[in-house]
Structure formats: structure tokens, C-alpha cells
Amino acid sequence: MCVDDPAELIAAVPAMLGFTPERSVVVLVLRHGTPGGATVDAVVRFNLDSPGGRRVRGATLAAAVARICAHDQAAEVMAVVVDERAVEPSADRSRCAAGRFDALVGSLGRRLAACDISLAGVWAVPAIAAGQQWWTLTGPRRRGVLRDPAASLVTLTHVLEGRPIRGSRSELTGLVAPDPLACAEMAAHLPDALARAGERYARAARRGDPIGYSRQALDYVLWQIANTASGAALMAPELAKITAALRDRAVRDTMFALAVGDHAAAAEAVWIALTRALTGADRAEAAALLGYSAYVRGDGPLAGIALEAALEADPGHPMAMLLDTSLRLGMRPEQLRRLARSGYRTAAGLGVDLGEPAP
Q1: Which residue(s) pair with 119 in the sheet?
Q2: How far apart (Å, rounded) are the C-alpha atoms in residues 337 and 358?
Q3: What is this structure's pTM?
Q4: Do 142 and 216 reside in the same domain of the chain?
Q5: DSSP secondary-structure letter at 44?
Q6: Residues 82/127, Cβ–Cβ less than 8 Å
Q7: Range of the domain at 158
Q8: Among candidate residues 29, 33, 129, the one with its CA nearest the CA of residue 79
């Protein structure tokens, strides 16, 4: 992608985010790549409006961007403001009087300059769709018309790689929204699954082999994830047994290893199904596993939504809090792979060989 072509860059934003943003500021963090130029190293979206309906403060957004840049050792930053309320200033109006985003852009520029990072360009567009007008908010006055984002080279590349591009953020939130029918079915099966798990643990403890219970529970979860990878659809009784197994800490800790394994996609499908069917701490556990898996493979938007769901279900969930903080600070996915390697060690301690961890 050519970062010198604003139209191409703006059209590529949905593919880079995984969905089409609305009322957002999309920040692209660049670092020096080849001798010929810079490469996009991180893409982060911020809401233009706070939950209370007020416009986000420029200083707040600028501080968040500065923290992310510090982690990524950024060379430059670009930003795209997407807001259907935006109106392109007419040629006879001064730039300082024309823009409703002047305060935001000014705060961002000053904060980055203090960190010796260049704000290389900021553009506004009412919506990222074919035929929409875009214009500059900083630097020399430029304007143009967007091509179809679906025809963007970045979009085509992502589609060929099997990475979905959703029409809006609401499609992502729908992935983890509670499903009333699934919740009712889970509520009917979970008490029995928990009771049977308790009985198995008690028998193992009486034999002096509590690890044997954890090993058996882990084997069951891995088996069902393998079934999912083969195309099987798990029903409420199986999901309830997985939920009971995940209450064992060793089993839960092993699940982080799956995020970098061959069955990562199948595991995510199971975490999504559980997140939609569970409540309280169990929902938070499944959503945190989903958030970690999405985070490690670079899907920041899904990771953020999953972790938000986890913290809504259980505000004190330690892993969800840690991952959410890491995501907000811009910690890179590869820095979190240690957790996956720890999962391999936990499995080995239970006598289960997950193979070699991915590099």
C-alpha cells in the first residue's frame, strides 16, 4: 500500500481494521521499513463520541496515541477522521475557522511533536465508501473521491488470506452478544455438568491423583475443539462440560497455547459459542480466551470487544484486565506469546503433549 496516496490509504482502512468504522478517528502508526519509505505498523481506532454523547477530548486521544507510539517506536503518524457530520470547508473559508476537528488535530500534533514524532497527514471523510469525498485537515489543501474500498489491494489481500471484513463494528459486537436461547439451554445443562465434574474431582482426590482429574478434563476439551475443527457443531451438553472443565485452572491456562496452534480458529469458535451462552464469571473466562486469541493473531478490534465483554461480565477478571490494559497501551501481539508458551508447559505438566509451540 502506498501511504503517499490518501485515497488508497483511506480505502484500505476497513481491511486494516477488520470492519468499516463510523464516527471514529483511525490512527496509523508508521515506522521506517525499507530504505525507500515507511510501513504501517499499527492501526488503532478511537470513538469520536464518548458513551455519554460528548465529543472525545483531543488531549485524551493524543495521550493514548503517544503511549502506543512509545511502544512501537514510531517514526510518523497518520490519521483518518470518519464522521458523517463532517462538512468539507469551502475554498473561501480559512482552515482555522473551517474545521470542527481543529482542536483534536492540534492536540495530536503537539503531543506527537513533543515525542519527536511527525504527524504526517490527517484526512476527513464522511464515510469510507465509493464516491465519498475526502479532504485534508492538515498541510496543503487536497481533496478527492474514494474508490470502492472492496477493490483496494489491501482488501483483496486480506480476503485471500481468509480474514473477514465486517460492515460495521456492530457486527463484531454481535459475535459476543448473549444469545437468549443458548443461555437458556446452557442454564439447563450446566448444573449437571458441574455436579458430575465435582464427583470426578472428588474421586481423583480420594485416589491422591487430583492431576488425573485435570488431565481428563483437558483431554475432553481438546477432543471437542478437534471435533469443531472437523466441522462438528457442539451442542449445549458438550458446551456445558467444556465450561465445567475450564473452571479447573490448569485446563484454563493450557487453553492459551491453542491461540498459536493448528486449531486456533476452532478454539475461537468454541470461545465465541461459550461467550454467547454463558453469564457471569464463566462468560468472562470464555471471552478472555477469545480476546487473547484474537489479540495474538493481530485482530485488535475483536480482541477489544471480547475483553470488553469479559470485563462487563466480571469487572475484576485478572486476565481480562491485564489483556485490556496491554491492548490500550499498544503492546504488540508477539509480546504476549509468552502466555501461549506457558500454556504448553502447563499441558506438559499434566502429561499432555501439545507438540512444539509455533515460533
Answers
A1: 77
A2: 9
A3: 0.76
A4: no
A5: E
A6: yes
A7: 6-167
A8: 29
